[in-house]
Amino acid sequence: MTDTQTMTDTHRITAIRHEDDDSGVTAVLSRIAADNQAGFARVNWETGYVRLAVLGDALVAAVAAVLAIYFRFGQTWDSPWNRNHLAIALLFPVGWVVMALLTGAYDSRCMFLGNDEYARILRAALWLTAIMAFASYMLNLNISRAYPLISIPMVVTLTLAHRYLLRRVLHRRWENGRLLRRIIVAGHEQAVWELTAQLRRERRHGMQVVGVCLPTESKLAKTMLGGAHGHPKVYGSLDVDEVANAVAASGSDTIIVLPCPEFGSSAVRRLAWKLERDEIDVILASALIDVTGDRTTIRPVVGLPLLHLEHAKLKGGSRLLKAAVDFCGGLLGTLVLLPFLAVLGLLIKLTPGGRGPVIFRQTRVGRNGVPFTLYKFRTMHVDAESRLQSLRAHNDHDGSLFKMREDPRITPIGRWLRKYSLDELPQLINVLKGEMSLVGPRPPLPREVAEYGFEMRRRLLVKPGLTGLWQVSGRSDLPWAEAVRLDVHYVENWSLWMDLLILVRTAGAVLKGTGAY
C-alpha cells in the first residue's frame, strides 16, 4: 500500500470517528480532505507549472522587447524616439501574457503533451501583432514598423524555447516516477490490460494506473485481485457506485472509462455527477487509435454527443502546400550543404572501403506504390548485396526490415555516416525530383512492400520522407510494429505544424547519434 493510500485511509477512519461523535461538519470536512488529497497534489504542481510558464513568458517578452529596441536603434537610449519605445517595451510583457491567456496557452489541458500549446502561442503572436498595428493606427502612436517585425518573432522563438525546456523538465520527472496522475481504468479486461501495459511502458504520458474496475465475471479480475503478479489492484466491478468508491479508495485523481456496454450515456453521466464534488477528471476513451484531435469533432445530435471522424488531409491544397515546402526546403538544403556533401564524398573515396561509387542507388517504393531510385552515400562494401543472404540469420530487427548492429559489410566511414544519418543527405535530390518529401514514412524496399498488410499499405498514400516520426522516436531501435504504427499515425494526422516539429526534433536525434546502425 502506498503512502497516499495509507494517509487517505487514516483520514477516512478519522472522519468516521468524528461522525460517531456527532460532529457532522467536521466529519464532512475530513472526508472531503481525504478524498481530495491526490487531487490537491495534482492541482498544486499543475498550478506551479502554469505560474512558471506565465513568469517565463513575461521574462522572455521583456528581453525580446528590449533587444528589439537595441537591434533597431542601437544604444541611444536617451533619445525621445527610444523613450517612446521603452514605454511600449514596459507594456509588451503584459500584452504578451494577456494574449497567451486569451488564446488558451495557459490551459493545463494542452500544456503538458501534444502540439496544441505551441499552436496557441503562435495564435497569440498573430493577435498581438494585429492589436499593435490597430493601436498604432487608431491612437496615432509613433511606432517604428520594424519594432514589431523584430520583437514578435523574437518573443515567439524565446517563448517556444522556454515552454519546451519547461516541458522537458516535467517529462523527466514523469520518467522518474514523480508528479504522475493516479489513474483508475474501468472497462473490459482486454482493453484495460492493453491500456495499462502501454501506460506502464510510456511514462511520458504522466499517468500511473493504480487500480482497475472489471466486469464481475472477468477471469482477469481474479488473477489481478489484490495487485498480484505486478498488476494494478482490482477495486470493483463496472457498477457506477463501485467505480466511484474505487476512485476514493485508491486516492486517484482521474478515471479513464473505456468503451463497454456497462457505461452508456446515463451511466457515464451518473458517474460524472458522483465525482464532480471531488474534482475527479473523467476521461472517456473512444475506439479510435492514433487519431489526433484535428480530425475529430463532437456534434450533438438528439442530445447525444457524436464523435465525427474527418478524412485524412491527403489531397488538394494540403498536398500542394506540402509539395511547395518540400521543394523550397530541398533546394535551400542542397545549396547550403553542397560544399559539405562534396567533402563527405571525398572522405568516402579516400578512406578504407572506398573502392566503388560514392553514391549508392537503390530501388524504393514511393507514393501509390510507384518505384523510384533512391540516392544515398555508400556506407557498405561493394559486395554488400551479395552477402545479405548469408547474414539474414543475424538480423537484429523484427519484421521485414533487415538490420545488424555490427554489420560486417559497413565501412569505417560508413559507420560514422550512419550514426549521424549523414548518408541520407543525397536524398535531397529525390526531394527536388518530387519522389520524396522532407518529412514522411521511411522509404520501403519492394520486398518489404510485398509483405504489407492492409494497415501497412496506408504508408504508401504519401511520399516517403528524408526524416519522419520513426527517425525522432528511436530510429533502428524501434520494433517493426511500432515503426509501422508511427508511419500510419503520420499519414492519418499530417499537418504542416507536425512536419515543422519533426524537422526540429530531427536535429536533436541526429546529434545524439543513438539508434542508428
Automatic annotation (TrEMBL):
Organism lineage: Bacteria, Bacillati, Actinomycetota, Actinomycetes, Micromonosporales
Gene Ontology CC: membrane
Transmembrane segments: 52-73, 85-106, 118-139, 145-166, 323-348
Keyword Coiled coil: no
Location of the Bacterial sugar transferase domain: 322-512
Family: Belongs to the bacterial sugar transferase family.
Any one Gene Ontology molecular-function term assigned to this protein's record: phosphotransferase activity, for other substituted phosphate groups
Protein's membrane topology: Multi-pass membrane protein
InterPro entries, A to Z: Bact_transf (IPR003362), EPS_sugar_tfrase (IPR017475)
Keyword annotations: Membrane, Transferase, Transmembrane, Transmembrane helix
Domain of life: Bacteria
Subcellular location, record wording: Membrane
Record NCBIfam families: EPS_sugtrans
Family matches, as Pfam families: Bac_transf, CoA_binding_3
Name the UniProt record assigns to this protein: Polyprenyl glycosylphosphotransferase
